[in-house]
C-alpha cells in the first residue's frame, strides 16, 4: 500500500514498522508532526516531555530497559538535550535508540540555523540523513538496526523541506521486536570516572569500526553519469542536484557521520571536478580537504539559508533561470498574532507602560513586531526570566520595576521554572508574566503539563501555576484575564512595585483552540468613529484603514471585543459595517 | 507525463493546506509520482504562505523555483503578485479576488498596491473571481478551497471523476456534499 506522507509522518511510520515501543519528544518546528503521528499508534507509548533533555533521558532509560525507543526534537532542542546525548554515546544502548533532529536552514520558524551534524561529530554518534519521505521511513528502520548492531544511539537528521514535504511512501507491516532483557551492568550504565574511561575506549573503537564499515553501506550510493562533474551531497540537496545537474555523477551520502572516506576517494578519482553541495556549515567539505581530497564547496555557495536547484545551476553551470521578473516594492506580510489572540491584551498594556520586555519562544514572540513592538529581547527557550534577572542585577533600581519577562505556559515548564527559582533564591526583583493560553500554540496546539491533558488528549494531572510559584517562594502572584485591560494594568503595576519576585499569570485560551467560542464579527459605526487609530495600535489584522476611519474585515474578526475596550468613542459594536 | 508544477499561495490561516492535499490525492489517483511541500510553523500565523505541488513520471525536488510553475492558485491577490516570478510565461493564475491587508498596510508604513489584477494580467493569463461568494452560495464560506480546485480542474482537464474522488477523500466527511457543490461551482466558472 502507498500513502502520500509528510517526511515527519514517514519517520513515525518507520519507527512503528521497526517495532519501536517508546517515543518521547518536545514539540518544535519542523519536528512536531513526527510525535503527533506517533501518538496515533496504540502499540507505542508516547509522551510530550517538558523539554528535550527530559525526553532524551526518558529515551535512554527505555533503551536501557530493552525497548526500541525514539526521541524527536528540533535543532535547538538538541542543545537542551546535549548533556545526556554526549554520555549516551559512552553507555551505548540496549534496545535501539534513535534520535531525530530536524534542522531549519533558512529559519522558517527558528531563532538560529545551527547545523546538527556537528553534534554527531563531537558526540561521536553516527548520523543518517534522508532525502525524501520514503527514505525517511527506510532510514529510521535502518537506524534502529545500526543502533543495536553497533551499540550506539543513532541520530537521524531532517531539514524543514524533508520534514514538511509529502512524497509517496510504500507501507510495510510492523516488525515484532521483543523487549530485550535488562541486565544490571554498572560498567556500561553507570558513568563515573572509572567506568567512563573504559567506555571512552569502547566508543573510540566503535567509531573506527563504523568509519570503516560505512564505506560499504548501501545508503552511501554512487550514481555514475558523466565524469566531467562529480557531486557529493546528502538530504534534500540531493534532489536539487538531480534537477540542476542531470548529467553529473553523484555520491549520495545517506550517512553523513562518519564519512565513507575510502568510497569518497574512489569517487573523487573518477571525476574531473568534484563539488560538495551541503547547506549550512562546510562539514563534509572540510573533512574531505583534511583527507587531501580536492573539492569545491562554500567558495561558490553560502552558509546562509537554503540551497535550491537554480542556485546550483547558476553556481556550477552559470545558467540563469526564470521567465518573469519578480515584483519589487511589495509590502511584506510578516506573521502576526491571530484575531482574538489573548497575548494581544498583555502586550497592549506592556507597551502602554513602556516596559523593557525580555521575551521568549512562542506565538507571543510576535509581540516584537509592529505595531505592538513591545519586546526587547528573545534568545532561546526559557531565557526571558534569567535575562530579566541579569538586567536587574546589572542596572539595579534603574531596571527593577521597569522590566518584565514574558513566557508561555509550555515554555515556562520547558525551562522557565529554573529561571524563576533563581530569581527567588538570589533575591531578585523580577516581574514574570506567564502567558497561559492553555496550550503549546506556535507548534500547533500540543498539550503540556499545565493544561490537564496528555499527548492522546486524555485527562492528565494539571500543574497549578499559582501553587507552583508559591512553593518556589514568589511573593506576589496574581492570575488575570489579559482581555480585562484595566485589571491587567492595575495588576501589572502592583507586581512591578512589589519588592521581590512577582508573577502575573495572564490566563486566557488560545483563540484557535475552540473556534466554537468565536462570536459574530463586530463592526464600526462610521458616524461615531473619529479615526483616532487607537484600535489600530492593537495590531489586529481584522481592523483595517478605510480612508481616514477604520473598518472591520468581517471575514477575519472573531468578535473577541478587545478593540471595543480601547475605542474612546464607543464606535465598535455588533452588526454590519456602516 | 512531464513534471507539472502548481503553486498554492495565500495568507496563513486561509486553509491552503487542504488544496494541496486534494492536489496530491488527485496526482496519486492519476498514477503520477508526486511531491508536496508545505509551510508549517510561524508563517501559518497570518504570514505569507506558499505550498508547492509537483506531479509527473518521476519527481526529484519538491520545491518550485523561478520559471517553473504551470499553474497558481492564489487565495489572496497580493500574494499572487508576490510569487509571480515562479511562473512560466505560458502559465495560468487562478486568483480569489480577496484582499487582506498585511500589517505594514494596517499600521500605515506601506500601501496595498493598486491595480494588482491588471499587473497580473499584463504578464500572464489570469482568472479572477470571488471564491468566497461562490463558496457562500454553495453553502459554506470555508469551501473556498474547493471552488478554486474546481476552476483548476476545469483548466487542467483530466478526468473529472478523479478530481471528485480526490475532493471526497480529503475534505472532512461531514462537509463532502457542500464541497462537491463548491467544486462544481468553480468548475463552471
Overview of the structural elements:
The complex is a heterodimer of chains A (578) and B (189). Chain A is α/β, with parallel strands linked by helices. Chain A folds into four domains: 215 residues, Rossmann fold; 98 residues, Rossmann fold (3-Layer(aba) Sandwich); 165 residues, Thiamin diphosphate (ThDP)-binding fold, Pyr/PP domains (Rossmann fold); 57 residues, 2-Layer Sandwich (Alpha-Beta Plaits), CATH 3.30.70. Chain A contains 20 helices and 22 strands. In chain A, the strands form six sheets. A seven-stranded mixed β-sheet of chain A has the order 3-2-4-5-7-6-12, sandwiched between helices. A five-stranded parallel β-sheet of chain A has the order 14-15-16-18-17, with helices on both faces. By secondary structure, chain B is an alpha/beta fold. Chain B has a single domain, classed as 3-Layer(aba) Sandwich (Pyruvate-ferredoxin Oxidoreductase, domain 3). In chain B, 41% of the residues lie in helices and 23% in strands. Chain B is built from eight helices and six strands; from the N terminus they run βαβββαβααβαααα. Chain B is globular, with a radius of gyration of 16 Å. At the A-B interface, strand 1, strand 8, helix 11 and strand 20 of A face helix 1, strand 2, helix 2, strand 5 and helix 3 of B.
Amino acid at each position: 500500500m502507498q500513502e502520500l506522507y509528510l517526511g515527519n509522518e514517514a519517520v513515525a511510520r518507520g519507527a512503528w514498522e521497526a517495532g519501536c515501543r517508546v517515543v518521547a519528544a518536545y514539540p518544535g518546528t519542523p519536528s512536531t508532526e513526527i510525535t503527533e503521528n506517533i501518538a496515533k499508534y496504540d502499540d507505542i507509548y508516547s509522551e510530550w516531555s517538558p523539554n528535550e533533555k527530559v525526553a532524551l533521558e526518558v529515551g535512554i532509560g527505555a533503551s536501557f530497559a530493552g525497548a526500541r525507543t525514539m526521541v524527536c526534537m528540533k535543532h535547538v532542542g538538541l542543545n537542551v538535550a546535549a548533556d545526556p546525548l554526549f554520555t549516551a554515546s559512552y553507555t551505548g544502548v540496549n534496545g535501539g535508540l534513535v534520535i531525530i533532529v530536524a534542522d531549519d536552514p533558512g529559519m522558517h520558524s527558528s531563532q538560529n540555523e545551527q547545523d546538527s551534524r556537528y553534534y554527531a561529530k563531537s558526540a561521536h554518534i553516527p548520523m543518517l540523513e534522508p532525502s525524501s519521505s520514503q527514505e525517511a521511513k527506510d532510514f529510521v528502520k535502518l537506524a534502529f538496526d545500526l543502533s543495536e548492531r553497533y551499540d550506539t544511539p543513532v541520530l537521524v537528521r531532517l531539514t524543514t523541506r524533508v520534514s514538511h514535504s509529502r512524497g509517496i511512501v510504500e507501507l510495510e507491516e510492523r516488525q515484532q521486536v521483543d523487549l530485550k532483557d535488562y541486565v544490571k551492568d554498572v560498567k556500561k550504565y553507570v558513568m563515573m570516572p572509572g567506568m567512563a574511561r573504559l567506555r571512552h575506549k569502547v566508543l573510540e573503537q566503535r567509531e573506527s569500526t563504523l568509519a570503516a564499515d560505512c564505506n560499504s553501506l548501501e545508503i552511501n550510493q554512487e550514481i555514475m553519469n558523466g565524469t566531467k562533474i562529480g557531486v557529493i551531497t546528502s538530504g534534500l540537496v540531493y534532489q536539487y542536484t538531480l534537477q540542476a545537474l542531470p548529467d553529473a555523477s553523484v555520491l549520495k551520502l545517506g550517512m553523513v557521520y562518519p564519512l565513507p572516506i575510502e568510497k569518497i576517494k574512489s569517487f573523487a578519482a573518477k571525476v574531473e571536478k568534484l563539488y560538495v553541495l551541503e547547506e549550512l556549515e562546510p562539514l563534509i567539505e572540510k573533512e574531505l580537504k583534511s583527507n587531501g581530497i580536492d573539492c569545491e564547496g562554500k567558495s561558490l555557495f553560502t552558509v546562509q539559508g537554503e540551497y535550491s536547484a537554480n542556485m546550483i545551476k547558476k553556481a556550477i553551470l552559470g545558467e540563469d533561470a526564470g521567465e518573469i521578473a519578480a515584483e519589487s516594492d511589495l509590502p511584506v506580510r510578516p506573521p502576526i498574532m491571530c484575531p482574538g489572540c489573548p497575548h494581544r491584551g498583555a502586550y497592549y498594556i506592556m507597551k502602554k507602560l513602556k516596559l523593557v520586555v525580555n521575551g521568549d519562544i512562542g506565538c507571543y514572540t510576535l509581540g516584537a513586531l509592529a505595531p505592538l513592538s513591545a519586546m526587547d529581547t528573545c534568545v532561546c527557550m526559557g531565557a526571558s526570566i534569567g535575562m530579566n534577572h541579569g538586567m536587574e542585577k546589572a542596572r539595579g533600581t534603574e531596571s527593577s520595576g521597569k522590566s518584565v519577562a514574558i513566557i508561555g505556559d509550555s515554555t515556562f515548564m520547558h525551562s522557565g521554572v529554573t529561571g524563576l527559582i533563581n530569581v527567588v533564591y538570589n533575591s531578585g526583583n523580577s516581574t514574570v508574566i506567564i502567558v497561559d493560553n492553555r496550550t503549546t500554540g506556535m507548534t500547533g496546539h500540543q498539550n503540556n503539563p499545565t493544561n490537564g491533558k496528555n499527548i492522546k488528549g486524555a485527562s492528565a494531572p494539571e500543574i497549578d501555576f499559582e501553587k507552583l510559584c508559591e512553593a518556589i517562594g514568589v511573593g506576589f502572584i496574581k492570575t488575570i484575564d489579559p482581555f480585562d485591560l484595566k485589571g491587567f494594568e492595575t495588576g501589572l503595576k502592583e507586581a512591578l512595585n512589589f519588592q521581590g519576585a512577582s508573577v502575573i499569570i495572564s490566563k486566557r485560551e488560545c483563540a484557535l483552540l475552540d473556534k466554537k467560542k468565536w462570536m459574530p464579527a463586530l463592526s464600526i459605526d462610521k458616524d461615531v468613529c473619529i479615526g483616532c487609530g487607537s484600535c489600530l495600535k492593537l495590531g489586529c489584522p481584522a481592523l483595517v484603514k478605510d480612508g481616514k476611519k477604520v473598518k472591520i474585515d468581517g471575514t477575519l474578526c472573531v468578535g473577541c471585543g478587545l478593540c471595543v475596550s480601547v475605542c474612546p468613542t464607543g464606535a465598535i459594536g455588533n452588526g454590519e459595517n456602516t | 507525463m512531464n513534471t507539472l508544477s502548481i503553486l498554492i499561495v495565500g495568507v496563513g490561516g486561509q486553509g491552503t493546506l487542504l488544496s494541496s492535499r486534494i492536489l496530491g490525492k488527485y496526482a496519486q489517483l492519476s498514477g503520477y509520482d508526486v511531491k508536496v511541500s508545505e509551510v508549517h510553523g510561524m508563517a501559518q500565523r497570518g504570514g505569507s504562505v506558499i505550498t508547492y505541488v509537483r506531479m509527473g513520471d518521476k519527481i526529484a525536488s519538491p520545491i518550485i523555483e523561478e520559471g517553473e510553475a504551470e499553474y497558481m492558485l492564489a487565495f489572496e491577490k497580493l500574494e499572487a503578485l508576490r510569487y509571480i516570478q515562479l511562473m512560466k510565461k505560458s502559465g495560468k493564475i487562478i486568483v480569489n479576488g480577496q484582499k487582506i491587508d498585511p500589517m505594514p498596510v494596517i499600521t500605515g508604513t506601506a500601501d496595498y498596491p493598486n491595480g494588482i489584477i491588471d499587473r497580473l494580467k499584463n504578464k500572464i493569463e489570469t482568472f479572477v473571481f470571488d471564491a468566497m461568494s461562490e463558496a457562500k452560495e454553495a453553502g459554506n464560506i470555508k469551501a473556498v478551497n474547493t471552488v478554486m480546485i474546481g476552476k483548476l480542474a476545469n483548466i487542467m482537464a483530466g478526468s473529472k471523476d478523479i478530481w471528485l474522488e480526490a475532493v471526497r477523500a480529503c475534505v472532512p466527511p461531514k462537509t463532502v456534499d457542500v464541497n462537491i457543490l463548491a467544486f462544481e461551482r468553480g468548475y463552471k466558472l
